[in-house]
Amino acid sequence: MLNVTIQITKDTATPAMAALAEGLTPENLLPVFGEAVANAVRANFNELEHTRPNRLGGDRAHYYSGARKGTKWVVDGDSVLIGIQQVGIRLRYFGGVVKAGKNPSIITGQPTRYLTIPATAESYNHRAADFPDLVVLWGHNGPFALARRTQNIMAVAKQRGFETERQEILFWLKTEVAVNPDETMLPGIDDLSDAIHRAFRNHVKALLDPGAIERARHAAKEREVYAAFGAGM
């Protein structure tokens, strides 16, 4: 009869399984998922920054770069919240109607009556108050644009109605503007799911290394501090 004796001189499995179990607790997993999703959102904004210059060709406002820097995450109980600190990002994603009158005029202090929509590269990313030489152009239905006060502006009454010729319009005047929803502001569900799965696999692989649990604790704390204070720096 053949006798086989197995002698365990060092138990490495138990510590590894303990490290794996602790590393897969919500407090250690949620920061991993939060950073993975936030990075996917930041990467999407970075792509938009490089592929969507403004249509008028004016100086870039770097809106998407600002959105990327303003993307942060925080653990909230058993969930991770992703926040994007950028004016108008919700409107761009869901769409909606913007109406004049919400904010006071910086000139009169009264509620605004019209929205000023840039008409040229020069006026893009500027307010009408930045141009002291503007005059109001009027049509049958009231004001419709702001143009430079120059001798080239002529008001002409024609058979089809009031028109202006040789005018340098800097802003169109609108009482409201409809913004179409744009879901490309954020990554798709498949892209977010891939980011989470990839982060999970890398996290488990790291936990199986010797000393991984201490590194996981340290990394989780670093990610928490970075999300709270240093994202986008």
Please describe what this structure looks like.
The longest helix has 26 residues, at 26-51. 38% of the residues lie in helices and 23% in strands. The chain starts with 12 loop residues before the first helix and ends with a helix. It is an alpha+beta fold. Helix 2 (26-51) packs across helix 6.
Task: Summarize the helices and strands and which ones pair or pack.
Elements: H1 13-23, H2 26-51, H3 63-69, E1 71-76, E2 79-84, H4 89-94, E3 96-99, E4 115-118, E5 134-139, E6 142-148, E7 154-158, E8 161-165, E9 169-174, E10 176-179, H5 189-207, H6 212-230
Antiparallel strand pairs: 1-2, 3-10, 4-9, 5-6, 6-9, 7-8
Helix pairs in contact: 1-6, 2-3, 2-5, 2-6
Quick overview:
With about 230 residues, the protein is α+β, with helices and mostly antiparallel strands. The chain is built from 6 helices and 10 strands, in the order αααββαββββββββαα.
Q: Note the run of SSEs as H and E.
A: HHHEEHEEEEEEEEHH
Sheet with most strands: 4 strands, antiparallel
Structural class: alpha+beta
Total tally of structural domains: 2
Number of strands: 10
Query: Over the alpha carbons, how many angstroms does the gyration radius reach?
Result: 29 Å
Tell me the helix content.
Answer: 25-40%
Shape: elongated
| Poorly predicted ranges | none
User: Into which percentage range does the β-strand content fall?
Assistant: 15-25%
